[in-house]
Design goal:
about 20% strand; 5 strands; about 30% helix; alpha+beta; three-stranded antiparallel β-sheet; two-stranded antiparallel ribbon
Length: about 90
């Protein structure tokens, strides 16, 4: 696993979705600015956690697919249903 590539690609993906940029959220009385909530990815020596999810060892196929997506420069496909515009 190329951790340097993963970290570099995460920075690039974050910039694509506008990290630190506020979005307009419409409310009943008008609108307000809102910053999207980040989804933390924690890398360990023997696995990862995504968000507040369970620990996932590197040997697990879903973990390997998630990291491969990131190393290929894409948002993890497992997150696309919940975050179609990236996270």
């Amino acid at each position: 696993i190329d951790f340097d590539l993963i970290l570099e690609n995460i920075k690039d993906l974050n910039s694509l979705v506008g990290e630190g940029v506020s979005q307009i959220e419409h409310t009943a009385r008008g609108a307000r600015l809102r910053r999207p909530e980040p989804l933390p990815l924690t890398l360990y020596r023997n696995g990862i956690t995504v968000g507040h999810g369970a620990f996932r060892p590197y040997q697990h196929p879903a973990t390997q697919q998630c990291l491969q997506d990131i190393m290929d420069g894409y948002f993890p496909s497992e997150l696309q249903p919940r975050y179609p515009d990236g996270v």
